[in-house]
Fold this protein.
Amino acid sequence: MCMDSLQTGYYLKRINTIERRPEMIKRLVFAALVVAAVLVMARGPRAVEARKQFALNRECCDFSLLQTLRMTAREAIGGVTYPSEIGQDKWVIGKMFPGVTNGFFLDVGSGHGTIGSNTKALEDLGWTGICVDPFPTHMEGRTCRMEKVVVSSAAGQIVKFHTHSGLGGIADTLGKWKAEAEKSPAVELTTLTLGDVLAGAGAPSFIHFLSLDIEGAELEALKGVPFDKYRFGAMAIEHNDEEPKRSDLLKFLEERGYRRVHSYKQDDFYAPR
């Protein structure tokens, strides 16, 4: 291991002990260690890559400076990888539930088991959960309970579902990528609600993280959740800049006690008020 990596590892360990110090000392030590760690990273052999990752982490995930430094060090020095497309897993791990290793997730529209997965990194930490997708791929090695179903606001509906890999969805609610999705075959499926899925899986009443990415049907899926029975600690919900869907999602969740805390690219991020 190179000296720069050893030095940065030392600084990171020291940063992790700051929380036990009195407030004034904590601030001074924190500032000094952040500067020291950044300087070491800046002169290391992977400096350019680390600086780019630092900037990306600060933008994607609404991190504080310390959270950004920790996440960047895990990647650049520790070799930890986060498969999600735009940092949804990093936001959960580094911002919303740092240190949690026994969380529970609901991944709706889970798609590929690794590439672009918002929950693979959570499983690697020890989390458990439910993955929902009528046509999942490459789920080898995943531990989530796999539900191969299509969800909507009511159970028992017969819907036409386009099977496009990554962009598939219910024909009537497809949004931004509708033209591309319609190039794939359509099959008829019978809907369930997320309430049905959660009850059938014996899910806990508190679910740490909901990932929702089903190509335009997000609001309809949320309408099938009994919010009086289940609460979510964090949500990443795709909107693809589609109106009025995005605004309707915001209103729906605000009425149920959630607020939008962050937005990045095609997702809005929510937490309880």
